[in-house]
Structures are given as C-alpha cells and as structure tokens.
Design brief:
With 312 residues, the protein is of the alpha+beta class. It is built from seven helices and 14 strands.
Amino acid sequence: MDTIPVVDFDAYRLGGAADDVPGAQLQELREQVRRAFTEVGFVYLRNTGIQQDEVDHVMAVSKKFFMLNEEEKRPYSRGSYSNSVNHGWVSLERESLNPQRPGDLKEAFNTTSLREDIAWPSEEFRTTLVSFYKRCIKLALRVLRVMALSLSIDPDVFLKAHEQIGSEVNGSTLRTLYYPPLKGKIVKEDQIRCGEHSDYGSITLLFQSKEEGLQVRSRKGEFISAPSIPGTVLINIADLMQRWTSDVFVSSVHRVLLPPVDDSNKERQSMTFFVQPDDNVMISCCDGSNKHQPVKCVDYLQSRFNKTYGKT
C-alpha cells in the first residue's frame, strides 16, 4: 500500500450507538481498519463525530499561547509539574525525536494532567484543551474497539487496559504543536521540523493544519506524504500496540520536513492525542505467543522519554 487509505467511520461515530452497528457495516469497517494497520500503520478516518470547527478552535486557542514570549511560557515548562512529569510546554529544539539530527524545529504543549489546581496559561486554554482531550478519549476507545474486533479478540483486551485515561495513573497526552516560520532563521545541517520517529504507546490521533510536511515511511522503505484532509482524523499505530499484536499491526516511522524555500515564512500547527495504556498494565502478546517479552507500560514509556530528552 503506497498511500494512506481513507475509511468512513460513520458506523462508530461519536454520538452513535456503538453496540448497534449493522453486521455488514461492521464487517467492512473491521476489514478496512485491519488492512490499513497491517499494511501501512496509518489510516484517515472521516465522519468520526469530531468536527473541523472543533479542531480549528483548539488550534486557535493554542496559538495564542505559542505567540507569548519565552519568559511568559517558561513557568509552564514540562518538568515543572510535580504531579505529571510530561505535562507542560516544550521549547523550540528541546526535543530530538531522531537523535542523529539537531533539535526539532517545533514547540509543544503537553496536556497530560486534567487537574484544575495546577498552573495553566489561562482558563480559556485549560477548558478548551481539557474538553478536547475528553472528546479524543471517546473516539480513541471506539477505535480500539474496532481494532480488537478486526483481530477477532474480545474488545476488553484493549479497553480494560485504558480504563484510567484522564487520570494520573495513565500517561495519555493531548499535545498541541507549533512549527514557527523559518524565514530569516539559521537552520542547522540535517535539521527538520520533526525528526524520524515512531510513537510510543497504543495509538495516536492526529489533527493537522493545511500546511504540508508530514511523511510516513511505507513498508517498502519509501516516505509518502500524509497531507491534511479536512474533516478527517489521521490515526496511527504506536510501538506498544505493535508489540501487543505480535507485529500484526505496524508502527510506522514518520517525520515532518521543512517547508519549501519559497514557503519558509509559513507556520504549521498540529495536534496529537497519544493514547497510552494505564501505567501498571503489563503488555504481552494478545495472541498468546512469546514473540515479545511482557513489559510494564510506565517503564517502557519512561525509557522512550529518556531517549527523547537526552537522559540515560
């Protein structure tokens, strides 16, 4: 498969009855999702119930934060929250998702904690991000259900491992990202907006602005474009899910390139909802095999974070 398929998720859309889907519709959806996740690891879902104007609003509120000067953003830095190590702002070039490249030309804000009694940039920021986080939870659980059905396993295998999303014993994170204009900036050799990497947890929900740059590595080893398609959600498999399914579902490497020289003054935004199992869940192959050794979710994720942020 050399392109990322677009699949109609209307049968399981938010607001619909997930337990009352006609058999023929469910069978077609299961087959399409399985094919996408086994062949390329990514799929565009349309008719999810999350509307484009919702996405646009969250990006607009996020952009207000990113436009603040660094001194105003620094109090909200990742690592400054005692209740959640991953919550908060990540500055430009702080991450190197591909350690062989210079720091990524992006900044981000991670919403991992939903608590009201921690420092937030503004009340509008908190309510907007928390509300959208909760919308993403609902969609993610529906996607996980279809994924389990596509493997002919009990949906509870996945769903019970994600029962604590939104609490402090689950690391699922809504990340809003800003890629600043590059005109007039000195770009280091081999530096790009986001280095080649695969995601860490179960699945990722991705929302993009119209500016291009995202690429996904196909099974042939070639990078293919993953442009924004308005009204869709781009879903991809992450590394723990690949382990969990004994490599049936594939976690594909992806990256975000620099804009063309004549478009270097264009900014870019995206949002990702990284879905993780609950911290203490042991991930073992769901087919009963020993292809991968069992691993505790929190231990695996922490080891990946350490590599991203240069810790050993």
